[in-house]
Design goal:
single chain, 485 residues, alpha/beta, Rossmann fold, Transcription Regulator spoIIAA, 4 domains, five-stranded mixed β-barrel, 13 helices, 22% strand
Length: 485
């Protein structure tokens, strides 16, 4: 039996999919790259952007047509708002929260799918072994069976911590890469930005035990992984929900740095995404102390206008953001700076947008992920008029993108003539070349036919710069990666 899962949205969803794949494969399913060959088809959805939700409808429309010709089961999980979930109930066979993943085998069993697990005569459920550390508390009341659809839970907005996520974290992922991995360190968010759906899809913040995080980092590093990213909706508020019982985010980074220093394992550790309100100096000072902590900061700005930031409920001003950037430049002068920006937010005037343009000019980001605002049901701003036209949003996006392009080229030109340690990640689109990234996540291409370098550290001397990338010559190859976990 074969399965195929389509993952939409952020890195957190991609990380969730790795644990999802492990559970599905434990049930005896085998991955297939071809959707049409699968018996089990799933989507890890993202309700944060309408574009991602549109992709869900496109996929399920196609899959349901296939049901007339073959037996297959469809499911959807991930970040799903109640309004979207209500619609999905009529389209998918199974809907569940990712924190209910340990119960997914039972959902399939109740649906009548033949898999390597079974229900005993006394109705005691026998689940496949997911991990010796996973504690499964199965509750048949979670499911409602109407002959067509099996539903886990009810379509309610999550405003409390999703404590079921703790058993989900204990599932060992089926990593999609042999050299790059993502580690969830928390779930949910307490910020309630007015444009954001995350508190309603993932609930309030809950931190994963630091011991588990450190063990996962060590296992990956000792298996030769070269790029490890800590994930959370607001990573630098890690531990604040468990004051007195957990370490802070800066302390977590410090422990990882100390481990890397003492073990000699060579890897880069990243994190995303932080919130300016919780970005403290000790986090930046800790990064400066340890070689493995990557000198790359992703700090979402969202808008360069204070009034827009207030309407967004961002809890920081432009000057607050400016002070953090000044500290980054002082403590981590070599660090690259990435950000997120929303254009066309409800009520954004031309003058307010110009303030964002000025902020872009001031901070000169290496990379910015710029998005046009789209209201999401459930988020506070969805109750306000979406009064900025599509045309204006598009114009603002292109203007910021052009500015980003200029800054990126200018910053990349400063790399010419210097040698950078890089991680080779894939074959480049340019024939006969490989793509790599610097510690600051700047794309580097160099001439080479040796695909065995993918997943290894190399040195590249830069000889030319372009928008969002540089090119150079290979000068050194480091030790090869070890066998993956």
């Amino acid at each position: 039996m074969k399965y195929h899962v389509v993952t939409l949205g952020c890195q957190m969803n991609k990380s969730d999919s790795e644990r999802l794949s492990h559970v599905i494969e434990d049930m005896g399913f085998v991955w297939t790259d071809k959707e049409e060959d699968a018996n089990l088809l799933g989507l890890v959805a993202c309700s944060v952007r309408q574009k991602a939700i549109d992709k869900v409808y496109t996929k399920i429309h196609k899959w349901n047509k296939w049901k007339a010709k073959k037996n297959l089961v469809t499911f959807v999980s991930g970040c799903v708002l109640p309004a979207d979930r209500d619609k999905f109930l009529k389209m998918f066979d199974l809907i569940f929260q990712m924190s209910e993943l340990t119960q997914f085998p039972a959902m399939l069993s109740q649906y009548g799918v033949t898999t390597p697990f079974k229900l005993q005569d006394d109705n005691e459920l026998v689940l496949p072994e997911v991990s010796k550390d996973v504690k499964v508390d199965f509750d048949f009341s979670l499911f409602s069976i109407d002959g067509k659809t099996t539903i886990a839970g009810q379509p309610v907005m999550m405003k409390q911590p999703d404590t079921k996520i703790e058993s989900f974290w204990n599932i060992k992922p089926s990593y999609n890469s042999k050299f790059e991995a993502f580690i969830p360190i928390q779930n949910g968010c307490n910020k309630f930005c007015t444009y954001c759906a995350v508190p309603y899809t993932r609930g309030r913040e809950i931190s994963r035990p630091s011991k588990e995080i450190l063990n996962e980092v060590k296992r990956l590093a000792e298996s030769g992984y070269k790029s490890i990213t800590l994930l959370g909706q607001n990573v630098n508020s890690y531990g604040l929900d468990k004051k007195g019982k957990e370490i802070s985010f800066a302390e977590l980074l410090g422990k990882i740095g100390e481990y890397a220093d003492s073990s000699g394992n060579d890897f880069w550790l990243y994190f995303t995404s932080p919130h300016p309100q919780d970005m403290t100096d000790d986090v930046l000072e800790t990064i400066a102390k340890h070689k493995c902590l990557a000198k790359q900061i992703h700090l979402p700005l969202q808008s360069g206008d204070d009034h827009v930031l207030i309407r967004m409920n961002r809890s920081h001003s432009l000057n607050d953001y400016r002070k953090i950037v000044q500290t980054i430049r002082k403590v981590l002068p070599e660090a690259t700076l990435f950000t997120d920006i929303i254009v066309g937010f409800t009520g954004e005037t031309d003058e307010q947008f110009e303030n964002t343009v000025k902020a872009m000019e001031e901070f000169r980001f290496n990379m910015a992920y710029i998005a046009r605002y789209s209201p999401r049901p459930g988020a506070t701003s969805s109750r306000w008029d979406d009064d900025i036209s599509h045309v204006v949003k598009k114009e603002r996006l292109h203007r910021l993108s052009d500015l980003l392009q200029q800054h990126s080229l200018s910053l990349n030109e400063k790399m010419v003539g210097k040698t950078f340690k890089c991680l080779v990640i894939q074959k480049d689109r340019k024939a006969g070349h490989l793509s790599a990234v610097t510690e600051g996540k700047i794309i580097v291409r160099f001439a080479s036919e040796h695909t065995e370098l993918i997943g290894q550290f190399v040195d590249v001397e830069i000889h030319s710069a372009a928008d969002f990338a540089v090119e150079g010559d290979l000068t050194k190859v480091y030790e090869p990666v070890k066998e993956s976990v």
